[in-house]
């Protein structure tokens, strides 16, 4: 397996991976898969803002992807990011999520971010919660019944980990 920065050409493989999770799982609270055009718009917004967007390849096929993005857009949150990770259904359970998350943490730390948040759909999502915990995240809260999908109320689990020196030092150019 090889992890590398994603390109726009990778959206041909990324789009159906995400669509699968939208249609069958609770990791995303979207209920209709976005079009290829919308996925391209999202990709451009993330990469144009300087956030990392990665793919995992195995035998030349894209088997998963991960990216960081704004946690929130207000300026005081500018040192924090939220991660997203999606794995192809036939590649689950092979350690790809953890490998992508480790690389994403490194990429975000290198870019100077100080906190990474995971907003995990479904408090029963043991796989994602376990991967995040294994990578140093701590559960900091649960938003109970915050979403409604597949005919039931769904929680969001909030997990967080410091990047670099976290809050032990001020960021460069600290002000406001």
What portion of residues is helical?
25-40%
Strand order of the main beta sheet, please? Answer: 1-2-3-4-5-7-6
Q: Alpha-carbon distance between the termini?
A: 42 Å
Proportion of residues in extended strands: 25-35%
Largest sheet: 7 strands, mixed
Number of helices: 4
Secondary-structure element pattern, one letter each: EHHEEEHEHEE
Q: What Rg, in angstroms, do the CA atoms define?
A: 16 Å
The number of strands is 7
Structural class by helix and strand composition: alpha+beta
Low-confidence stretches: none
Structure write-up:
The chain is an alpha+beta fold. Helices cover 29% and strands 33% of the residues. The protein contains four helices and seven strands. A seven-stranded mixed beta sheet has the order 1-2-3-4-5-7-6. The longest helix has 15 residues. The protein is globular and about 45 Å long. The N and C termini lie far apart (42 Å). The mean pLDDT is 96.
Features of the shown structure:
single chain; 176 residues; alpha+beta; seven-stranded mixed beta sheet; 4 helices; 33% strand; globular
């Amino acid at each position: 397996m090889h992890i590398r920065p994603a390109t726009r050409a990778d959206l041909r493989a990324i789009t159906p991976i995400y669509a699968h999770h939208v249609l069958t799982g609770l990791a995303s609270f979207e209920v209709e898969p976005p079009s290829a055009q919308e996925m391209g718009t999202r990709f451009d917004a993330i990469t144009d803002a300087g956030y990392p967007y990665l793919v995992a390849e195995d035998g030349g096929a894209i088997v998963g992807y991960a990216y960081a993005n704004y946690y929130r857009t207000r300026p005081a949150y500018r040192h924090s990011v939220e991660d997203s990770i999606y794995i192809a259904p036939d590649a689950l359970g092979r350690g790809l999520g953890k490998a992508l998350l480790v690389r994403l943490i490194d990429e975000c730390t290198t870019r100077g971010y100080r906190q990474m948040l995971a907003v995990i759909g479904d408090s029963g999502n043991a796989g994602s919660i376990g991967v995040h915990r294994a990578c140093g995240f701590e559960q900091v809260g649960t938003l109970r019944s915050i979403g409604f999908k597949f005919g039931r109320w769904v929680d969001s689990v909030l997990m967080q980990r410091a990047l670099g020196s976290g809050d032990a030092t001020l960021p460069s150019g600290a002000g406001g």
